[in-house]
Write a structure and sequence with these properties.
single chain, 319 residues, alpha/beta, Metallo-beta-lactamase, Chain A, seven-stranded mixed β-sheet, six-stranded mixed β-sheet, 9 helices, 36% helix, disordered N terminus
């Protein structure tokens, strides 16, 4: 005899439907737990944690997790410094925060507009207040759609949930945030690595979150002004920090020695470009020659140095 689904009693059918729904829910939860595995955190100071990103290009395999991101815990709540390169990474950061504190996230501070530092913003809903440089809203609105389009081939579906979340608290020059007996000093800088660079200094421990104003291991990436960046480095050395959390590289490093390799690279890039301009070398050739002597000191050199040289050459040829 051929079975018919309509022969199943209504109550049995309802139970089967419920069972299928429960099994589906269990499968979904299992999958969610897998993809929401908390990020690993290094404690670099009292109440200060950092997730060190890979020294790599953003892609689906690494979830865009190539930048250093961190948090500072005060008596009343938490400040998150950058959120990573995808909402998935941001959610994993949320999970990691829950493992070290039950205090709420009061502030999400974006150090600049590049996607590896803020594509995870949507993982942090209100009441968290987003904080950034006075130039950050403009940079995010102008560049956000381009970044979403250009990273689609390598990031794929991980970009589906990304939202461009601009700051509602603006740092014109300097600003202090009190997390409860823990004061963070924020400072917006001239165009340097980018047009919207911001640093965060924890006064209690002397820890400086430098964003991409400080690169280690990963070759510096120039998207602002080479002259501005070198001038900013001179001012950064005067900050009374004990350690720095660079935008890329180890979770922390001694200060100000951490600046030395970057300063050397940028100074060489600037001097080589000036020399090539003086000699009348065209920009296409100069992009392959400038700072070539620095190659052995940096990872991802081939991916970024020609671009850096082109940007520096374009800026310096009008001096």
């Amino acid at each position: 005899m051929r079975a018919h689904y309509d022969a199943i009693p209504p109550r049995s059918a309802a139970l089967i439907t419920l069972l299928v729904a429960l099994l589906s829910r269990i499968a979904t939860l299992t999958y969610s737990q897998e993809i929401l595995k908390p990020l690993s955190l290094d404690q670099v100071g009292s109440g200060i944690y950092v997730h060190a990103g890979e020294v790599a290009l953003m892609n689906a395999a690494n979830e865009g997790a190539i930048a250093n991101i961190g948090l500072v815990i005060g008596d009343e709540g938490v400040a998150v410094i950058d959120t990573g390169g995808s909402v998935r990474e941001g959610r994993r950061l949320v999970q990691a925060i829950g493992q070290v504190t039950s205090k709420p996230v009061l502030y999400v501070i974006n150090t600049h507009a590049h996607p590896d530092h803020l594509f995870g913003n949507a993982a942090f809903p209100p009441p968290a207040v987003f904080v950034g440089s006075h130039n950050l809203p403009r940079d995010m609105m102008e560049r956000g759609p381009y970044y979403l389009k250009s990273f689609r081939p390598t990031m794929g579906a991980l970009l589906d949930e990304v939202k461009i979340v601009p700051p509602t608290m603006i740092v014109d020059s300097q600003l202090q945030l009190d997390l409860g007996h823990r004061v963070l000093s924020l400072r917006a800088w001239r165009a340097s690595h980018s047009d919207s660079d911001l640093t965060v200094f924890d006064e209690r421990t002397g820890t400086l979150f430098a964003g991409d104003l400080v690169f280690m291991q990963h070759v510096p990436v120039l998207d602002g002004s080479i002259r501005g960046w070198l001038a900013t480095i001179d001012e950064l050395t005067k900050l009374p920090a004990k350690r720095v959390v660079p935008g890329h590289g180890p979770p922390s490093a001694p200060w100000p020695a951490a600046l030395d390799p970057e300063r050397q690279y940028l100074a060489r890039l600037q001097s080589d470009c000036r020399d090539l301009i003086k000699r009348g070398v065209p920009i296409a050739a100069a992009s392959q020659l400038a700072a070539a002597s620095e190659k052995s000191h940096w990872e991802l050199f081939d991916e970024y140095n020609a671009r850096n040289a082109t940007a520096a050459f374009s800026e310096l040829e009008w001096e």
